[in-house]
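It is worth pausing here to work through a concrete case rather than discussing structure prediction in the abstract. The textbook approach is simple: state the sequence, then state the predicted structure, then interpret. We follow exactly that order.
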Amino acid sequence: TKNSVVNEVYHDLSMLIEWVEHMYEKEGISLNTENGYYEPLEVVPPLLRRVLHLLNLSCDCYDQTQCLTDLKEKLRSIYQDCTTSESYMQICLVGHAHMDLVWLWPERVTY
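Step two, the predicted structure:
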């Protein structure tokens, strides 16, 4: 069975990391992951700096508690924290599902 907390944490982290990468690209900052060097945080927009800081705090929380539910709540608080002003980002969660109808019903019924 699928663990819903693990699934939610995975998707929240994936979405936030994708947004951070988009912001780095938008600002023209390279994502040099080969040697671990990144541009100093002073050269990135304040919102990006804030999200990176909150992601760091979220991961620290998990390191200390080893509790995925705590991590999930910390990640969710990033969305709430970053929607207090119009200058902040807008994050939309989008779901996608694929239903294999032939698996559920005989193929002749799915036309």
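Step three, interpretation. The mean pLDDT is 78. The CA atoms of residues 31 and 89 lie 21 Å apart.
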